[in-house]
């Protein structure tokens, strides 16, 4: 009688992802967020170009703190997705495959996206 190896139970909540894994998952999430919100942003932009009164109503709508927070989140998603995409293109070209380099570039993408979001949002909101 042959014993089959039973599949190992992996508790997803107890798995601790390394920073490159977190950056990869956030890259996918930010891509989905951008894909879903792009039509809404295009409608908003097209509406602002139609009439001056429409522009003023959209401007009042965009001054809502919740909308500002969503736009800042989309700015972060765009920056993170772009920077992580460049990182993945370099990895596809076999640049930065060493473990320490991969971790360092993942940390750099994570930090740079947050810093650029704060700087750009700060400049746009002042």
TrEMBL record:
<feature type="transmembrane region" description="Helical">
    <location>
        <begin position="66"/>
        <end position="90"/>
    </location>
</feature>
<dbReference type="GO" id="GO:0046872">
    <property type="term" value="F:metal ion binding"/>
</dbReference>
<keyword id="KW-0479">Metal-binding</keyword>
<comment type="subunit">
    <text>Part of an enzyme complex containing four subunits: a flavoprotein, an iron-sulfur protein, plus two membrane-anchoring proteins, SdhC and SdhD. The complex can form homotrimers.</text>
</comment>
<keyword id="KW-1133">Transmembrane helix</keyword>
<keyword id="KW-0812">Transmembrane</keyword>
<dbReference type="GO" id="GO:0005886">
    <property type="term" value="C:plasma membrane"/>
</dbReference>
<dbReference type="InterPro" id="IPR000701">
    <property type="entry name" value="SuccDH_FuR_B_TM-su"/>
</dbReference>
<dbReference type="GO" id="GO:0006099">
    <property type="term" value="P:tricarboxylic acid cycle"/>
</dbReference>
<keyword id="KW-0349">Heme</keyword>
<dbReference type="InterPro" id="IPR034804">
    <property type="entry name" value="SQR/QFR_C/D"/>
</dbReference>
<dbReference type="InterPro" id="IPR014314">
    <property type="entry name" value="Succ_DH_cytb556"/>
</dbReference>
<feature type="transmembrane region" description="Helical">
    <location>
        <begin position="102"/>
        <end position="123"/>
    </location>
</feature>
<comment type="function">
    <text>Membrane-anchoring subunit of succinate dehydrogenase (SDH).</text>
</comment>
<keyword id="KW-0472">Membrane</keyword>
<protein>
    <recommendedName>
        <fullName>Succinate dehydrogenase cytochrome b556 subunit</fullName>
    </recommendedName>
</protein>
<dbReference type="GO" id="GO:0009055">
    <property type="term" value="F:electron transfer activity"/>
</dbReference>
<comment type="similarity">
    <text>Belongs to the cytochrome b560 family.</text>
</comment>
<dbReference type="Pfam" id="PF01127">
    <property type="entry name" value="Sdh_cyt"/>
</dbReference>
<feature type="binding site" description="axial binding residue">
    <location>
        <position position="81"/>
    </location>
    <ligand>
        <name>heme</name>
    </ligand>
</feature>
<keyword id="KW-0408">Iron</keyword>
